[in-house]
Amino acid sequence: YLECPDCGKHIPVFGESKIDEIAKELGIDVLGKMPIMTKSASLADKGAFDLSENKYIEDATNKLIKLESE
User: Fold this and answer.
1) Measuring CA to CA, which residue among 5, 66, 6, 63 is closest to residue 35?
2) pLDDT tens digits for 28-51?
3) Which long-range contacts does 67-70 make (Cβ < 8 Å, 24+ apart)?
4) Domain range summary for the chain, segments of one domain joined by +
5) Average pLDDT of the chain, as a whole number
6) Rounded distance between C-alpha atoms, residue 26 and residue 45, angstroms
7) Which residue, 64, 41, 61, is CA-closest to 51?
């Protein structure tokens, strides 16, 4: 999805996500959902994704760390 830069509304450019249904069928947790972000994509193309200040990646990483410690 994209996030509208003006209002923050989610715009499902590829249709509605089915990830929650798929995860439920597989018995796994969804680590997170991340919008298409041109800044993050540009940094990844340059091999510098780790410099991205991306709350979605940070949240997913924290969930993964929590799951690993259980």
Assistant:
1) 5
2) 999 999 898 888 878 888 888 777
3) 67/29
4) 2-69
5) 89
6) 32
7) 41
